[in-house]
Amino acid sequence: MKASGLSKGALYWHFPGKLDVYREVMRHQIDALHERHTFLFRTNRYLTAKEMFDVVGTTLLEHIAKDDESRLLWLDLFVVAQRGDSRSRTLAREIFNALLEGEPYSRSSSLREKLEYDAGEGEEEDRLAGIKIFFCGLLIGLGLTMSLDTAKKQWSSYLRMAFRERGAA
């Protein structure tokens, strides 16, 4: 509060509660990532789902690794989702889903549409769940148990496994 120069009263004049403040801060985080992705996806509109997830994940890992405040915000999001009430868990899902949707991805087709096409009927939700779980683990470990380079290598390795050809072992 001191760094912003705002009093609690002024802050809550604009936001009804803490979760609303948190949502707005995270929206700015996601908007910054979307701006980076928009440029990347405009230059190559025909990325596969695997390539899009690789760009999104790598960009987020790099963003979080270079900014301690961002890393703390994302870690707090996981903690809030785990121990919070239903509104907190809903907010965490909303924020994570917003990362995978929006302007950068709607230019060619959404990540979800590409995932449905690449995964095959009925498999896309399982694959998306696995991707989210693995990525959350990377975000939690980044800076604690692994370097940025290790996290990026693990992300690429996981995506190769997750997007193996249908019918391949």
Key words describing this protein structure:
169 residues; mainly alpha; Tetracycline Repressor, domain 2; 9 helices; disordered C terminus
Describe this structure in words.
This protein has a single domain (17-162), classed as Orthogonal Bundle (Tetracycline Repressor, domain 2). With 169 residues, it is mostly helical. Mean pLDDT is 78; it is low at 165-169. It starts with 7 loop residues before the first helix and ends in a 7-residue tail after the last helix. Helix content is 75%, strand content 0%. The chain is globular, with a radius of gyration of 17 Å.
Q: Identify the overall geometry.
A: globular
Rg measurement, Å? 17 Å
Order of helices and strands: HHHHHHHHH
Name the helicity range.
over 70%
Provide the number of structural domains: 1
Strand content: under 5%
Largest sheet: none
Q: What is the CATH architecture term?
A: Orthogonal Bundle
Reading off the top of the CATH hierarchy, the class is best stated as Mainly Alpha
Q: Uncertain runs with pLDDT below 50, 5 residues or more? A: 165-169
Q: What is the oligomeric state here?
A: single chain
Number of extended strands: 0
**Overall pLDDT confidence:** 78
Structural class: mainly alpha
Note the gap between the termini: 53 Å
Helix run count: 9
What is the fold named in CATH at topology level? Tetracycline Repressor, domain 2
